[in-house]
Amino acid sequence: xxxxxxxxxxxxxxxxxxxxxxxxxxxxxxxxxxxxxxxxxxxxxxxxxxxxxxxxxxxxxxxxxxxxxxxxxxxxxxxxxxxxxxxxxxxxxxxxxxxxxxxxxxxxxxxxxxxxxxxxxxxxxxxxxxxxxxxxxxxxxxxxxxxxxxxxxxxxxxxxxxxxxxxx
Length: 168
Known about the structure:
InterPro entries: Prenylated_rab_accept_PRA1. This is PRA1 family protein. This protein has helices at 3-22, 30-33, 45-58, 60-76, 79-98, 112-129, 132-153; strands at residues 103-105, 108-110. By secondary structure, it is mainly α. It has a two-stranded antiparallel ribbon. α4 packs antiparallel against α7 (132-153) and α5 runs antiparallel to α6 (112-129). The chain is elongated and about 75 Å long. The termini are far apart.
């Protein structure tokens, strides 16, 4: 491994560790997240908005996992989109790792830039056939419905009453 790769891997590890400490450290217990005894219909739109505002802040890490699961589901159910993403990512990694200088192929000189361009064009065509816009809007819609329903129907806990109170 060269020094650039080691530095990149260290950076990725630091980012993942930071993500785990900050976002996943805020993850709420499933018993609290799925507490069906606190589910009730809000009295009006103002009550819904108040509940949703509090619950979105309180359960933000749990909601991020819901969005990630919806994204994984959308990719799994759209194989052409998944193949396009794997082709693009794998192609760029392959070119950067295995083709560092120009080479001759059937009397033509092929540079790494030519290969990057070819991978990009073919990958974009594959992605377009995989309908990324519909997958994106499905993820946004499904996540919005799930999160909106959960955040608005779940009554905030007792700790929400003390949210604005400062301790000395």
